[in-house]
Every structure is written in structure tokens, then in C-alpha cells.
Amino acid sequence: MNSVLAEGLKIGAVNTIRVLEKSPQAISADALIKKEFSSRDRALVAQQKKTKSMEDRLAKDGAIMSEQERKKLERDIITARRDLKRDQDEFREDVNFRFNEERAKIQKEVFDAIQTVAKANGYDLVLFDGVAYASDKADFSDLVINYLKEKKQGQ
What we know:
Layout: E1 4-6, E2 9-14, H1 16-22, H2 24-61, H3 67-120, E3 125-128, H4 141-153
Parallel strand pairs: 2-3
Antiparallel strand pairs: 1-2
Helix pairs in contact: 1-4, 2-3, 3-4
């Protein structure tokens, strides 16, 4: 049994980080976010390649270009770098926002699962977040992960 008896109390601990990483809900959310942002990611990669191509052209042909042509290409590269950095920053912010949004939903679901599993298994006290140590006997994270898997399959 995954519990510890202390003066008649059944105490358990949950490693919420592990539960969040291994729950099918979190895995699905990660896949959803990757799918949502895949086209923007591909566009950024194309933008990087285009910028690199311009830089390579300047390095290769800069010496034989007219001064006007070289200066125009240098300005285009500076603009492309600036646009790329701005687009990458916006992309990162948007991905982080969506990740945090999905993580908040999952955290509530995990908290509800912890309570359900604790009640179903007769725990009097459950510790999570900030637990410095919990032996395998006291850790019922796997019960919570299994509960979340069953819940996900039932959806």
C-alpha cells in the first residue's frame, strides 16, 4: 500500500511535476500546441533561411557588387534580421502564453484527480508541492497518473 501510518493517519505524497509530465492530458496539450504553432514555426525557419541566404550572398559576392547594390543588400539584411528577431520573440511569447493556458487547465484537473484518488484510497492527508522528501511508500503519484489515464480514455 502506498501510505504511511502516523498515529492512525494515512498520509501520502504526490510529485505533481512528475504527474504533470506523465499525464496523458499534458502530453495531449503539448501535441496540440505544437500543431497549433507548426505553420508559424515553419515560416520562421523559412525566414531564417532567407536571411542566411542573403548573408551568404553578401559574403560571397560583396566584393564584386557595386557599392549601391552592396549597401542595399546590407540594409535588407539588417531589416530581415530585425524582422526575424521580432517574429521569433512574438512566437515565443505566444507559445508560452498558450502553454501556460493549457497548463493551468491541467493543473486544476490534476488537483481534482489527487483529491479523488486520495478519497478513494482512504488518505487523511496528502502533501504535494514543497515536499522535500517522500518515500516510495508514501508517494501515490502513479495512482494519480493512472487515474488521469483512465479518465482520458473515458473521454
